Here is the input.
Amino acid sequence: MAIEKEISEKRKRQCSKLVDISKDIVRQAFDRFKPEELGVTWTGGKDSTLSLWIIRQVCQEKNIPLPKTMIIGEGDEFEEIEAFVEKYRAEWDVPLEVCRNEDVLKAANYTLNAPVTVKDLNERNREELKRIGFDGEEFPFEAESYVGNHLMKTVVFNQFLERNNIKGVVQALRWDEHPARFEDEYFEYKEAAHLTPEHTRIRPILHFTEKDLWDTYPAFNIPYCALYEKGYRSLGAKTTTVKASDIPAWEQDLENTEERGGRRQDKEKAMERMRKLGYM
Amino acid sequence: MILLTIDALRKDALGCYGNESGLTPFIDSFQNKCIRFTNAHSPSPYTQAAFPGILTSSYYLEYGRQKMLSEKRVLISEVIKKAEITTAGFHSNPYLSDYFGWNRGWDLFYDSMEDEVDDKVPYVKAGGINSKVSTWLSSHTGSGVEYPPFFLWVHYMDVHEPYVPERKYIDMVDPTINLDDVEMFRLFKDVLLKRDVSDAGMVEILKKLYCAHVREIDDGVKDFFGILEKLNLLKDSIIIITSDHGDEFGEHGGLSHDGKMYEELVNVPLLIYEPARESVDVSDLLVSTLDIPPTILYLFGLDPVDTFEGTSLLPLQDYPIKGVFGEAVDKHGSHEKGEEKEVHYYLEGGLKIIYSETDDSWELYDLKSDPKELNNIIDTSSFADAMNQKVIPRIRRYQR
Here is the structure.
């Protein structure tokens, strides 16, 4: 389905310009890396779907298949996202890898908030916990807690790079989504570190504002997950994401209200920093 | 107008305040353009309790004592933004993050919580903060000579534990210290976090590592001034420089900053850099960091705010002679007793009284004859009662 919203010809041209900038970044990525060295991150959310759609445009013009694409299975997914991802995986022929930290899922008995005992985990996960300075004996299974986020997302991401020998990975970050992003660059080289392979992060849609994005969707008939229609603006784990409003995301006051409604992660991040500084 | 705050920076680590180890050559070099307050006090010995003073001119125990910034506190940024002056804040302290409500009133607020940091340096260092500030300043001021006025707050974490300074700075302090990052981090975990002062040698090493961080942040401040100079802003910028609290190295039997009210923790550096000034003005006036927001309003020519409890430091000759209060929750004592225990101090005319609810104790020190606060004269001083009466009304006043 596509958004039914009138977009003026002038605005369409503007959106088209933004898409062209992104396509150019993607083309540069293909110049720098072999197709098999590239990876794409997808969540089914608005940013990574736009990014994937743009990459697909470039691949079609080059007549090559989409690069290997990862989606993280964190054990707390919206059914609507899963359905959307499945539909377009098939339709767009996305070489999708669903990446999960099975070891942790198993230790939690696939149950949200169940306690995970550290000594039940495999060596890699235990090593990862050590790396982030966690020295407790157990933690609750929850993808957006600090420990959960690291094991369920960061580790899984690094393993995806490692397993597929990925040298460049596309991330759908935008400058305006958070002040911390405003200095990010289209290409950022990350040196190899303990348990993290060397790679380059490629961010083709940095320049899109949230408003640009919601105008570009109807301008190009890009499909989106139904949750945005119900008022969600930013999608994360099912149990920790809240609706910003009951009207579709693109009809909300995007410029004067917060995009990131679910603040759970922010709290976790602040708490974790405090702990590292020696408090609590 | 710029407010530059440095977390956990002890006053006595700065050359301009008498430190002879040469840790702050850059800060010392511009003293001729400063008013230097020698008797400035933070109301509290840790960030969460001290920053309501610096940015909202209010005491910590007022309006509740949560990490979450009360809606009733008015941030200096809110007042300035309302006057249509651009505001921007850059820092990396979780206690002052977006999540806890410190983002109110800033046109741009960067708290670094989205950035990845490691255990040994769990914050974005001055270099990273400066680069963001530089990007923002360039875009705000453009290439022209005329730019709209702004209020900028920059806060550095580089002096804060864990003490894992760069090798280059350790060498400047004491090249014989032969510890690698992992060993320094182990000192943090095994000695500092345990508040273990039993080995004086270890405490001495921790202090030297802290000093290396001070030397490091002096370079951070230098780079910041360099950015202002490059953008041609320095000649028009008034810069208030201070810290939220100090750090303890065994002076009163502990480490770090948990809730004690001794001078190594609450007597903070405070400088007002004025570009037009030609010689230093050293002021021994007893002032508080709660005075900073009213001073900023004065400099912008804005009206005072009712909720602000401080007094403008400028004009200096109009500043009243008065005492300063401090209050916090004793984190250590509260933790042990399982409930929040208050700690208060009051300082006036060289006398300082401290009340600790944890063990219901009173201490009185004559800072002139006993600057290290080692000789408690509460039972012998004829001023004990008068000082006592100043503090009693403030204890548990918000819980009655």
Chain B touches chain A through 28 residues (CB under 8 Å).
